Amino acid sequence: MDKKKVVIIDGYHLLHKGYYGSLKRKKVAVNREGKLINAVYVFVANIYQLIKSNSYHTIIVTFDVGKECWRREIYPEYKATRKETPPELIPQMQLVREFLTSANIPWYEKERYEGDDIMGTICRLAVKLGYDVEIFSNDKDTYQLVSENVTIVSQQSKKAEKEVVTEDTVTEKFGCLPCQIPDIKSLLGDQSDNIKGVKGLHYKTAIKMIKKYGNVENIFQNIADFPPDKQKKLEECKEHVLKNKKITRILSNVDLGRIDFRPLRVNYIRFMGFLKRERMWAFTKMINDKFEEQQKIMITHRENLQKENSGS
Fold first, then answer.
1. Which of 44, 123, 207, 267 has its CA 20 to 30 A from that of 196?
2. pLDDT tier at 33, thresholds 50, 70, 90
3. Where does the source fall among the domains of life (predicted)?
4. Homologous superfamily, domain 178-248
5. pLDDT in the model for residue 2
6. Alpha-carbon span 36 to 23, nearest angstrom
7. For residue 29, what pLDDT is reported?
């Protein structure tokens, strides 16, 4: 018997992908006030496709909360080179949260933590409860979460094929195990996150070191294995590398309270209300059958209650 599958969506990346990917179109979606809702359109379309596939026990979305997080407390330059969020995208971030709430799709975020940490925590709990997990994200940082029960679904561009990232994929691409990705990034740095690596250290050398010693902590414990000049270099960068390891590792123990792993029950009545409010007419036709079905059930339930009350 196949295990039930939970899908976790990287909300931040889906929003940005929707915003930038749809700006090139001739007609860009706007709401009744004439404000852009292009990212919301793409977000809703992607979530609806997952709902329609009927492949998942439930769908969970994770978000970042602002720029401040615990990683910046350790390393203030973390992600300092990233572009500011476009002003037109900021209100859309709130709108997708309203959409998820209206459709009864669980979503999670927490002050001081990034969406990856929320994802890592939910992922660990889901596997512990016996679910298989698919993570929809284009962020290669999430590859460290891959395991026997966890895969990443990535699509770098609209024209590109969707790629399912497994343990074997990570080993082929990076030459290490998924759990060793933070160690590799600790040594080599990560330009996209403005994390500086060990100066002059090459990729192949870093991979050899991690393959031999398993992690950066063991490299420093066995520093006597290296020639004197490399020992000196490693000693000089030890504090920096261990700090890198802290900030590149995705947390899996964030206190999120109770996570809703119940089977997904989309509220099509409130979903329809959201679509009509935002004039997203392209979707109203798609969910109309489900909307009418739930409406009939609700009306029947209300009539039965009235009969019971009038008879008592």
1. 123
2. confident
3. Bacteria
4. 5' to 3' exonuclease, C-terminal subdomain (1.10.150.20)
5. 72
6. 10
7. 82
